[in-house]
Amino acid sequence: MFYFVEHLSAGPQSPDFVGTPPEGPGIPFPRIEPDSVSSGKAVPTMREVPPVEDLGEGLWSIPVPVPHNPIGFTYVYVLSATGGPVLIDTGWNHDDSWTALVEGLARTGHGVDEVQGAVVTHFHPDHSGLTGRLREASDAWIAMHPRDIAILENLAGQAPEERAASMVAQMTRAGFPAEDVDAFRASPTVFRSPAIPDRTLGDGEPLDIPGVALRAVWTPGHTPGHLCLHLADRDLLFTGDHVLPRITPHVGQFPLDSTKGDPLGDFLSSQARTGRLPDAERLLCLPSHEQRFTGLPERTRAIIDHHEERLARMADLLRKGPTTLWELTSGLEWRRSWEDMRVSARHMATSETAAHLRTLEERGLVERDGSMELPRWATIT
Ligand SMILES: [Zn+2]
To answer: In CATH, what is the architecture of 6-379?
Structure first.
């Protein structure tokens, strides 16, 4: 089987994006841009929205559109339960998306006012965007991993101008040329913060709903609090953005030059752990985008291999001498040529490179010099 490893990227605006960016800088958001080319094959661009599907035994999938975005849609899964249906994710905050969710629920025989709660796989707006509207319509509880709740609380407490200023400073320290920094500064910043969840769901915790044996599997990487959800008695795994059949999620380091954490290291460990879940081989995986798939161990290995190749490539490039984050990122291969990327996509690519550099640092293979103003990385010889 071929895997087209096209990345689901996080960042403000991709070159494919048409219209006003719906979020401000630094708000990760899945995009198909700009990431690495690993297969060398053309990637199909078909993003047709599939129908609402009855997956049997009280489970449905509702594709909720993400308007003006090449990702196309987010699957919201509906589980019938005593006390009202439970949703996995909610979808992007847009009138068309809300209508699709409400009409999709009606197709499953449920009114939106009956929804008892929603488990959100991670804080990104194509998953959490409609939590506020859902809560208003049904008084539903909203559950999320505490690490992602903390991010939302942090974002809610920060003015967009403050975030933009911080990102401009980061880009300058990364070595972005002035024209890119200026272009970024000029881009509009509008972010509608989703509702803050009122329930936490940690690793291994079951969802406390009679008749639904759903358990959280913490899979940090794409976001620090990303959750997959395991319905073990039915051999189903809701994989969110963590494992998708063809594209791989963006993993970035924020702030760009932070020496804290190792998101890519976390992501690789999460992939390995997911591939070793009990009965992983026979699990039917229900992702948030694309289509259902099996072969989880094989898919997680392919994703790990892809990043290991990228890590090796970067370590190799750094042998040539000390390099800024911008120099390294602009010298790598990406799906779209560097020249064709908008500054926001370049920023996104840079955050991904930064995550790889953090992993290489953690592995003792590269180090950055002491400059705080313009750090440079080199291979440790
Ligand atoms: Zn995401």
So the answer is: 4-Layer Sandwich (3.60)
